[in-house]
Give the backbone structure.
Amino acid sequence: MEVKFNLNGKPVAAEIKADTLLYDLLREEGCYSVKCGCETTNCGLCTVMLDGKPSLSCSILAARVEGREVFTLEGLQKEAEEFGEFLAAEGAEQCGFCSPGFIMNVLAMARELDEPDMEEIKEYLSGNLCRCSGYMGQMRAVEKYIKTKREDR
Amino acid sequence: MQVVNQAIPKVDAKALVTGKPVYTDDLAPKDCLEVKILRSPHAHALIKSIDKTRALKVPGIECILTYEDCPDERFTMAGQTYPEPSPYDRLILDKRVRFVGDAVAIVAGKDKACVTQAMKMIKVEYEILEPVLDFRKAKDNDILVHPEENWKSLCPVGADNKRNLCACGKDEKGDIDEVLKNCDYVVEQTYHTKACQQAMMETFRTYTYMDVYGRLNVVSSTQVTFHVRRILANALCIPKSKVRVVKPRIGGGFGAKQTSVSEVYPALVTWKTGKPAKIIFTREESQIASSPRHEMEIKVRVGADKSGKIRGIDVYTLSNTGAFGEHGPTTVGLSGHKSIPLYGGLDAFRFSYDVVYTNVMSAGAYRGYGATQGIFAVESAVNELAEKIGVDPVVLREKNMVKEGEVMPAYYGETANSCALDRCMAKAKEMMHWDEKYPCKDMGNGKVRGVGVAMAMQGSGISAVDTGSVAMKVNDDGFYSLMIGASDMGTGCDTILAQMAAECMNCSVDDIVVSGVDTDISPYDTGSYASSTTYVTGMAVIKTCESLKKKIIFKAAKYLDCTEEELEFDGKKVYSLKDQREITLRDIGNRVMCNNEDSLSASEAHSSPVSPPPFMVGMAEVEVDTETGKATLIDYVAVVDCGTPINPNLARVQVEGGIAQGIGMALYEDVVYSSSGKNYSNSFMQYKIPTRLDVGKIRVEFESSYEPTGPFGAKSIGEIVINTPSPAIASAISHAVGAKIRELPITPEKIYYGMKKQ
Amino acid sequence: MITINNYVKVSSLQEAYELNQKRTNRVLGGMMWLRLGAGRVQTAIDLSGLGLDYIEEDEEEFRIGAMCTLRELELHEGLARYFDGAVKESVRHIVGVQFRNGATVGGSIFGRFGFSDVLTCFLAMDAYVELFRGGIIPLKEFIQMKRDNDILVSIHVKKDQRKVVYMSERAAATDFPLVACAVAIKGEKIFCSVGARPMKAILLEDVCPKKEEAGDFARKSAKAVPFGSNMRAGEAYRRQIAGVLIRRGIEKIMEG
């Protein structure tokens, strides 16, 4: 079957099977930033924005994105770099394998929450596992990023 | 220092944070055969027959390989220097399966769907055998995990496959029984740690293809690029010259990828078919058929006199290596050799051990490598000793901890040439406000907060074994290429080695290009494990830079027509101390590319006769719900002496990451088997690694000593950091509610019943 | 991962119902649990084109569409106000925001999972399920029914003035609960629902004790509930914790 949707701002038509997952389709479409860490919806590495909401592409049927809008990190390079600088300044990206999914959710949070405190931030990002950093460096980066964004406003 | 000890971002940071395709699966050719493993449902069985006729008819299937297609020469998947201490007990596929999840057949086809379908159609007939599942009953059991005649052990580690022994041994000084008999206080307890999973976010994965020279090319997520070359040559029984291994960016390792877990399968497929092949372990496979921490049961006896002087420590470790012996003989050593020496001036010590085979997943290398298990036991016992004596555990440690300059008999007789353990303790105490918080505080809402402490050490590389070499050359316009054989697994060794080179050459990190590991091109390095890269490979960088500087000056002398003795190199130019003559590095770099007979490159190797321990102190503050036993980590303070931190940010994140993993081990992570040996902890749904809501606050400081044998005074950092959480948290809980938990993980249920026992 | 041969985004409940009569066909919720199975689905029935992702509130009740996500439940101001944050508390520990943006209320309730926080929470309320064929029936009856081929359309929760508290005990923050518990008090009556036993939630209805008797009442209630053991916790420990949670729930409600 065919699915048509908007990927990173561009229309896409792709041939899929009924059980093709969005995760697999996105990698086929060259969005290699999207990673899989667990297959059981626990790690957050496959996070993409579906109609603006952070979602787990490993558990979404590709067929279900018909007519919808999907963003991966490939389509948010400027924002990724902007937050990524904060992350790298802490050395907290480490192996980098969880970074794309984590950054997607940070960007989603920055859009959704107005002036979140640290507890709210932690809770919002709790579905993003990281085994390298122990999270502290990530949180320092998020805190500085949110603060800078607020000051820029 | 201009570059070393500076918190610069990692050289690969930008690619990683923008999600560039730099990992194994991102780079694999699109026409790779998909490789999957059919795995045993039985803990112990002999394969009677495998019928693959129907499966081979599935469209798209390329081949189905069984034990009949594999060489009958045993090898080890452990990434260690040859001759490996780990026994040669593996075949790629064996007629005997030894745990639930052991490989039975390799299936390769054009896509996942056809391979999955074919796997369901393979009929395997097993003769089911009784398994050995309890590691306490494994030694000299009638059931043998490795009865085969071609099993072999290359090193004298006390292995005997006819006794289910992967290793055994003893190390002692003085008469421990006599010393303990004369102690006023003796604690004797048994501690049990489980087989934790490294759980790096990128599972095991490899792709392989044949190159134009008829050689097997292997791109793999590994920490031991050079060892993989040997392991594959051994496994396939082909010359080592026929194998090339390349490491791209890798998504974490923590020791898991110091074992060649995934490489043999696509390698065999490509070698047999000539076609490119790829295997991506599922998370389930990574949980049930991988290389987790060795489960250990450790008996500790520790005694002190009336004044609180610790006089003797006796440690016996029983280690469970599972179905295969990877890292079995070596991990166990650290459980005693890196716990007992934390205490100086002992009258006697004894450390003895057995490592046994059982029918569960093989263990491997995990950050801390046995030290973690031993330190949980010894530090817990010392905490119990403090309670028995009635003294603050910090005070007991201040009195007994190893001091700088002291010889450590239980650490191969090495001297602690750099040791700031005393300063680490003082700083941690201040950060935690220990004196106000010890032992506990009732919060008045059914919750009590307790504090606990533990010390730790590790090594820096394997003494007189680990070898790091690097090569460096001057290019056009004077930029440098730094070629290393150490495998950056996300920790940032590409960056810190470049920092050291930049410091030596008096330039910026931007002037240095670092190349990752390719066994055809990179200089030899044992690999990134045993906390060796900073300390061992770092020294090789310094030596190489010294050689290269000499060559630059030699060349400049020729161009300037003067003697080398009168020239100085300042990083940008070589200039004469006598007159105005000078030449820039840029000009040298360009001029050597024309009419030149002196190669402007250098390569040096380094190995160290000693392995200087980093030291640290960890303190935990934990809140316990007195009605439910639920423990919540509030605050964790870590103060580390890793010598000079080469990159303070990366060192800090190493500490924070290691502490978080240690918290996971202490409170949540457990590999659970059914009574028939099925692994229940087969996903991130059932094996819970900490989220950011589970780790409380982790605060890190450095109290640096200066290690005279290390690069810029540096020692290691990567492994030591996982060692303190388990004993510190266990002690904090004991201080809060009295429950003494000696088996990890410390679950609410164990705490609850621990409180009831009071 | 399950295999799916055919995908149909239905245009009416009638169409969904008819397709669902075939045993090998399945209705999709958020696909969080369904995909983890190993079975084969002939036709996957997608309800997401039917506008069932609503939360409606009037004087009488809340009506929550089956395709409403757990995240929408969590963020709904009306629910938060009326139940004093109990519904939010029941979902906020579930994996993470991305997961809750996918998981649906219908999937959670229809699955009648042992670990379900959502089911445990609604069970203590005056809640009903609306089935396409079966009509509106109380949730407590629905959970006893065998899985059938009907279609879950929505959940109705009455505004009957009951005060509800939701609590769960978890080892790790976003793990399944060791025990989950919702306590609701309405006048003289008390409703305690206990989930993650680890079997599916069970409801106890009783006369509300006095505050000083809450401890005894809670222990007695927990004794009446069957528990089991799994790798997360043992039966006896679960019973103990359930007693603690019920008592705390009562105290919290009574202390306002």
Observations:
- Residues 235-255 of chain C form the longest helix (21 residues).
